[in-house]
Amino acid sequence: MDIRLEVEDISPVKKKLKVEVPAEVAGKEFNQIANDYKKHARLPGFRPGKAPLQLVKRRFRKDICKDVLQRLIPESYDQALREREVKPLGDLKIEHLSFEEGESLSYEAQVEILPEITLPEYRGLEVQVPTEALTEEMVEEQLEKIRQRQAPLVTVSDRTTAADRDYATVDLEGEYLDQDPDGKPAEPIAEKNVTLQLGGEHTHKSFDQALTGMDVGEKKTFEVTYEPDYPEEKLAGHHVRFNVVLNDIKLLDLPDLDDEFARGLGEFENLGKLKDKIREELNHQLEQNRASKLRQELVQKLIDATNFEVPELLVENRIDDKVRDLAYDMARQGLNPTKTDVDWSSMRSDLRAVAEKETRAGLILAKIADQEGFDISPQEVSQELEGLAESTNQPIDKVRQHFQEDSRREGLVDQIRRRKALDIVLEGAKVPEI
User: Fold this and answer.
1) Do the beta carbons of residue 18 and residue 8 sit within 8 Å?
2) Structure pTM?
3) Domains (ranges, CATH) in the chain?
């Protein structure tokens, strides 16, 4: 196809394409489509296919023009990209479109492209990440957590008044003092033998204040205003009046930390063996934490040593991913993202700096992967899918099906390539012991 093309460089990652399809080319297409319409047109006073062409053109002008655009724009745009070897990010967006019968077809398209990246020397980078030593305090703290998880709740026998850190068992009735956004009255709350830890991280402070100092058998009425982002959706953002009866006060019956306790866990001969296992797991965790910090420091070194403009489209896509993940997290906690008072516009602004940094890092690592000539094999993809299935506790067939879509599979391959690139950087890094 004969086209006239101008390309304007707006920035290193933005170009404006001005495309014109000459009138004779556009007119030929218009006439071909008009003749196709003529073959099937049904107009008053004429048999099908017998209406004059000019009458068909007048009657179906808008439809014919639309079909011309649908044929010529993709074809001319693809030709323009090939001629100038432009590889755009994202879909075509047309600006300043102009076309009428007998005239040329012209439009503009602003596109973003990947930046040209000049890599620094990425082998031999020096980073300093202190090694955190395992302490006995860490071991004892982890041992105490295990002890508390194994401890049963027993009724307090030497007092009847609830105090901080007690586990209070209550019957409660709740009456909503407001309405749902749809105007429907909410169902009242009625629950028996609910156990709450006073001062616990999952207990609302209003319950802490109301129940502390109550005696067993005592009744109390109080009101609670829940935050809009409260984890339990049926309570989030509501104002509720509760009637509560304190049934019982309990405490954890902490077992002695001895050999019998260790054997009760089912896999340890004595307390010493249990502590050895805790040390092993904590050391592994400390090593993993240090490796993660090393990677973060190396990525930051690469970012600091590499200067280029990041395409806005890629940053926006990264922000989209983060917002979507946040919405999924809310849904898993029982919150409806559309009914919270989260300012999503402000949220996007807050996420921009991190999204740009992550996008920049991804582009650098992708460039390293290109330079190293990484070609991901089907076996590597299969291993990655198996790892995802295991970490997410999903059937492998379901994970494979999810990644059958080309774009998802390409994204997975890109992720593997970037990870291998960072492994190369890490292998060659100079990391003095601190």
Assistant:
1) yes
2) 0.74
3) 4-113 (3.30.70.1050), 152-252 (3.10.50.40), 268-427 (1.10.3120.10)
Do the beta carbons of residue 80 and residue 110 sit within 8 Å? no
Q: How far apart are CA 323 and CA 331, in angstroms?
A: 12
CA 257 to CA 409: how far, in whole Å? 50
Closest CA to 280 of 268, 263, 298: 268
* DSSP structure string for 330-359: HHHTT--GGGS---HHHHHHHHHHHHHHHH
Q: For residue 203, give both structure tokens.
A: 């207990």
- pLDDT per residue of the chain (434 residues) written in tens, 0 to 9: 889 999 999 999 999 999 999 999 999 999 999 999 988 888 888 888 888 889 989 899 999 999 999 999 999 999 999 999 999 998 899 999 999 988 999 999 999 999 999 999 999 999 988 888 899 999 999 999 999 999 999 999 889 999 999 999 999 999 998 866 556 667 889 999 999 999 988 899 999 999 999 999 999 999 999 887 787 878 888 899 999 999 999 999 999 999 999 999 888 999 999 999 999 999 999 999 999 999 999 999 999 999 999 999 999 999 999 988 888 877 776 667 766 667 778 888 999 999 999 999 999 999 999 999 999 999 999 999 999 999 888 899 998 998 888 888 999 999 999 999 999 999 998 888 76
Map tokens 């829940």 to a residue.
226
CA distances from 351 to 344, 348, 364 (A): 10, 5, 20
Give 343-352 contacts, CB < 8 A, sequence gap 24+. 347/323, 348/319, 348/323, 351/319, 351/322, 351/323, 352/315, 352/319
Q: Two tokens at 297? A: 């420091």
Could you give the count of Cα atoms lying within 13 Å of 310 in the half-sphere of its Cβ? Answer: 21
Q: Which helix (H) or strand (E) holds 164?
A: none
